[in-house]
Amino acid sequence: MNGWYDITDFGARGDGSTRAEGAINQALAAASRAGGGVLWFPPGRYLLGAKVVVDRQVTLLGAGWASRDPAQGSWITASTPGVNLEIRAEGTRVEALGFFQEQPPRGGGAWQPASHDFAIHAGADDIFLKQINLFNCTKGIKVRHHTGGTIGRVILDHIWGQPVRTGIEIDNAQDVVKVNNVHFWPFWEGNPGVRDWMMQNGTGISVLRADNPQFSNIFVLGYNRGIAFGESDNGITSKFAITNADCDSCETGIQVGGTNATGLITNFSSQGGPGNVGLAVISGGVKVLATNLRITSYRSNSVRISGNNTKVFIHNLWAELWNLSGAGFPGVEATSGARVFLGRPLFFDRGNGAPNFGETDGGQVLSAFDDLMTSCEVVQTPQGEQYQCDR
């Protein structure tokens, strides 16, 4: 087949023990000489002993994978720390491949993962990753330009597995990055040591500096933070959009940090299990609009919003079974100068003796949209008559 390069024709064996990076690099070179092509990974386990760098546009294609059986399908495996696959070529596509990283034995006591880096480093514009299984990777996919510059238009679709420290990390993405159909669940191991380590240290999706990142159809389970927005030396995240997401048994479902971050959340549910809080904002100047939330079973608040000049608008909230610690946490708490605007309808159920709303340290919770503006008057401006309101 013209344009197809079977890595086994270049010496890869797929037996899980023979190093394959040399054969993969030879196939990459052959495809590069031809102006591009498809590198075909037949079913097998291809061991990497060193990083593979993709510096010309190609497609890396496997035969798919079985979600809980790395003996079935096409897998790239690593036993020593190091980035497995680094993509530096615009327009590269990786599809239908599983990634496996050797981890320490799992026992009943304390456990921590090996110091593997990200299985895939998407380091150029216009990369497409589809049907990827991060079976037991310490870190899954990093989206950041390989030179440290800006990156954009990267698409991740159908991302499965159990990355234990970080599933997906995005930084300095100043054009739209789209993440769709994510399912992070204990496909690899439900051992108590692994589970407890992830609950204390893991993040499903971490977004640092990004403009207009879009997330849809997301499911993450068993992390310290399900989806977290923060900041880096490159800045903060603005205009994020989350649609149809569920965080199960996470300490925090969604956490929004980074001064002046902005975003939109639609159709979000979160079940805490041993978790702390469903939706948390932890920085000043944040503005978030959230619609259709169902947040249940948390030790403290369903929603906790903090930060001076932070404003969060919530419409259609279902808060149930909060304050499981019995320490008196309100269902929705505004603190440290934050304001929360709650629109109808509202449903609060079983707060374990705690109030529905709480205001501390200058925070405010306003319980209907008609409370958004306490007083208005018409004033003359250079642009003509305008309304001026207190809030």
Give a structural overview.
- The chain is mainly beta and 391 residues long.
- Helices cover 6% and strands 50% of the residues.
- It contains 2 helices and 35 strands.
- The chain has helices spanning 21-33, 192-201, and strands at 4-6, 15-19, 38-41, 44-48, 52-54, 59-62, 65-66, 69-78, 85-87, 93-101, 118-122, 128-134, 139-143, 155-161, 166-170, 178-184, 203-207, 210-211, 214-221, 225-229, 231-232, 235-238, 240-248, 252-256, 262-271, 277-281, 287-296, 303-306, 311-320, 332-335, 339-349, 357-360, 364-366, 376-381, 384-389.
- The chain has an 18-stranded mixed β-sheet that branches. A 12-stranded parallel β-sheet has the order 5-9-11-13-15-17-20-24-26-28-30-32. The chain has a 3-stranded mixed β-sheet with strand order 18-22-21, with no helix packed on it.
- Strand 21 (231-232) and strand 22 form a beta hairpin.
- The longest helix has 13 residues, at 21-33.
Give a brief outline of the structure.
By secondary structure, the chain is mainly beta.
Helical content stands at under 10%
Q: From the helix content, strand content and strand pairing, which structural class follows?
A: mainly beta
What is the oligomer described by this structure? single chain
Mean pLDDT score: 93
Rg over CA atoms, rounded to whole Å, is: 23 Å
* Number of H/I helices: 2
**Spatial separation of the terminal alpha carbons:** 67 Å
Major sheet:
18 strands, mixed
Give the strand content.
Answer: over 45%
Rough outline: globular
Find the count of extended strands (DSSP E, 2+ residues). Answer: 35
- Low-confidence sequence ranges: 370-375
